[in-house]
DNA sequence: AAGTGGTCTAGACCACTAC
DNA sequence: TAGTGGTCTAGACCACTTT
């Protein structure tokens, strides 16, 4: 390892490993060399490699399994749902279905341009769908993606319920963090039609921006939710 | 250290230290013995003590400062506000003021009894107040506390804006975790009166239960928020 | 039985804070 | 200058998984 970086050794090892993962040299699911092999490669002790790997595991970049090894983290619909989906009913996290899915390309609105940090000539892919829980419509959802990052999405015949594993598998984009802003708002005419409720009904408006590991915004999503039978849950520690 | 507990050494050290802090033997703000002194006391190595202290720091039970030492964590209005308050405006986290504060003792409702896990004969202290931001009422707040835990609160002349540092300082109760459930709802007649808005206006209803380190619920709070100029922010990683 | 990550030790040196 | 936590090493042994 080169020195004089004024940062701890394990930080430099961590960054070197993160680079291999984020660049795709090590693909999701891949087994990493063991701690001693990495220690030898970087010219540090095994304890230093361990600290770097533990930090990467805390950021969900790798998964460690005693007796098996350390693997590049792979997004599955379950793990993503558990990390990033916060709507519950009395029985726990809900798994809504989708209907009336539409996909289209459009020139971005000002908010889309800002949220996705689009280039001046960039266009967006918009996915709109109504999500149902126990056959009742509860979420009116609009998702905006940069066309530059997700070209090819339009040609798909079907859009799965959970998108983030698709982003990783088909587009090489791994969501690392989401920021959500919540407000109460009256249902618009369009939302009321899709949710089969009166115009003006209070809905929970969730604005979400999803970021990849480099901090670049990759998805903007607005969900209008009826909260008669579900609620948004948050734990603060 | 006694053995045969089938748990790692550092876990046992951590629990022993946590017990001293939670029981009050080591009060908030107190300087702990250094790592080598603790290692000698427990008959383990310094590295094991370090791992225990790092885990306690991650749970906000202690604070570590290079060159100064390790201290029992002390709640201040700032740290608590930063950890547990999620309402923002365009400029960042807001710090609402309070008005029309009322404190009273009452027999608990069924929901209060359930949320606070009250004993059959237990009563509650209710604090109601209207919270303002830039002189506009934005939150209609009701807080319920077990009278058994907070006796003496009624005699106070004033109730501060941030309560959790008061809980720790005056009642020995440290909030470790809060769980919040959010819904959109129409403003009730009472809420509309206090927030100076029409009945039925969509408000963000935040139901919060706060827990201490042992997992016991210590506070139940319902906030009805107008979200014209503020929003609830959540980051998921 | 072989290989992996998890725990634990003993000791060295560095970076920061206080006196 | 003394004392603290932070980093790093080298090595031992344990617990778990796979073959």
TrEMBL record, chains A, B:
One GO MF term: DNA-binding transcription factor activity
GO biological process terms on file: negative regulation of DNA-templated transcription
InterPro entries per record: Bact_HTH_transcr_reg, Chorismate_lyase_/UTRA_dom_sf, Tscrpt_reg_HTH_GntR, UTRA, WH-like_DNA-bd_sf, WH_DNA-bd_sf
SMART domains from the UniProt entry: HTH_GNTR, UTRA
Keyword Membrane: no
Domain HTH gntR-type: from-to ranges: 7-75
One Pfam short name: GntR
Membrane-spanning intervals of the chain: none
Keyword terms: DNA-binding, Transcription, Transcription regulation
PANTHER family the record matches: MANNOSYL-D-GLYCERATE TRANSPORT/METABOLISM SYSTEM REPRESSOR MNGR-RELATED, MANNOSYL-D-GLYCERATE TRANSPORT_METABOLISM SYSTEM REPRESSOR MNGR-RELATED
Name assigned to this protein: GntR family transcriptional regulator
Annotated organism of origin: Dichotomicrobium thermohalophilum
